[in-house]
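In the design runs reported in the main text, the only information available to the sequence generator was the tokenized backbone. The following block is the verbatim input for one such run; it is reproduced so that readers can re-run the procedure and compare outputs position by position.
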């Protein structure tokens, strides 16, 4: 709240007053709120340390060591390749994060820890964060755009050049993208209704993880994978390994220069737009509009920002990740809707996302 002249409002001045804060911390009607806000502020301040504890827990597979096998804390500490006192600090850090439970000196996996282990690709993503940590070592320079980010060299396909990563790192990153696509595919299909779709083209579909899920939802539809020529080999191998090679038509191309396969009544863009600037997105959406049959649907599914209600997933995590990738940006659903309208789409629907930290969905029809 601010006064008309722009000076901090009276509420802000009151909260900044040490005497008021001391009083509010003691007063029965306000002390729980003061404590809650204090804890929230400290979580923000200490977030960098929490992420490092998480990284070490994953790297040393501590959660796996106690999965289904509770361990005495001292014995578990001695099993880790760390000095005993530091290993115990790490274990207690895991308890503080809610990933482990400590009861009567024995360490167990918590329900939250079990959920983390059960999310496809999540551990690999946490390991992958070490690159982003290095890119953020000078955060002010990062926000100024003065950092030649290491993460930008890890994207294998954006520039059609295979990226700058080595073979092992590139394979690791591709595996990460495929594994993390599972949740995205599940949430996307839960947010849309594909009944009546007879031909679906998935643009930028990588190794075909999303199309593999679509194949189960549309057992009789014609499915087409459109992506760069160098992606076709790994995609064909992955889909044939799932017994789907005969169901998929492989269409190599580059949407920056090539038209999309025509005659589709649905085109999907799953985790594609946020890898590109607006000028490329406009080109892609125009090509999608031209390729769709009249009334055909365009479905966009990817991490998005919160628009007028910023949230941590979209407006911090994915926003910074896209900045480090140096290729695109996370956008609000409303912004994507605007771009769809500009390209000639109508009947635009912003689906309610059950897990915006996984994906959000916007769809429109060719008019």
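Verbatim output:
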């Amino acid at each position: 709240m601010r006064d008309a002249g722009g000076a901090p409002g009276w509420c802000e001045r009151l909260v900044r007053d040490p005497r008021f804060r001391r009083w509010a911390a003691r007063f029965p009607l306000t002390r729980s709120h003061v404590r809650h806000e204090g804890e929230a502020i400290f979580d923000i301040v200490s977030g960098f340390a929490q992420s490092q504890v998480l990284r070490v827990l994953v790297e040393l597979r501590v959660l796996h060591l106690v999965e289904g096998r509770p361990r005495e804390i001292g014995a578990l500490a001695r099993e880790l390749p760390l000095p005993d006192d530091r290993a115990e600090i790490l274990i207690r850090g895991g308890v503080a994060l809610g990933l482990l439970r400590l009861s009567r000196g024995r360490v167990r996996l918590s329900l939250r820890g079990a959920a983390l282990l059960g999310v496809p690709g999540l551990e690999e993503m946490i390991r992958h964060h070490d690159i982003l940590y290095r890119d953020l070592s000078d955060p002010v320079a990062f926000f100024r755009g003065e950092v030649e980010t290491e993460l930008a060299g890890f994207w294998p396909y954006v520039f059609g050049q295979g990226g700058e990563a080595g073979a092992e790192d590139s394979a690791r990153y591709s595996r990460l993208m495929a594994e993390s696509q599972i949740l995205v595919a599940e949430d996307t299909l839960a947010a849309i209704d594909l009944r009546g779709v007879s031909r679906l083209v998935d643009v930028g579909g990588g190794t075909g993880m999303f199309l593999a899920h679509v194949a189960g939802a549309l057992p009789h539809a014609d499915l087409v994978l459109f992506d760069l020529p160098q992606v076709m080999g790994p995609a064909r191998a992955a889909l044939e390994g799932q017994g789907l090679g005969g169901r998929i038509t492989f269409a190599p191309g580059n949407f920056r220069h090539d038209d999309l396969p025509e005659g589709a009544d649905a085109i999907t863009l799953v985790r594609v737009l946020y890898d590109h600037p607006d000028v490329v997105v406009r080109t892609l959406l125009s090509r999608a509009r031209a390729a769709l049959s009249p009334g055909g649907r365009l479905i966009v599914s990817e991490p998005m920002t919160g628009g007028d209600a910023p949230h941590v997933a979209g407006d911090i995590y994915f926003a910074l990740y896209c900045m480090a990738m140096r290729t695109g940006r996370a956008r609000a659903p409303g912004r994507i809707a605007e771009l769809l309208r500009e390209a000639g789409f109508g009947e635009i629907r912003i689906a309610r996302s059950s897990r915006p930290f996984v994906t959000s969905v916007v769809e429109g029809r060719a008019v």
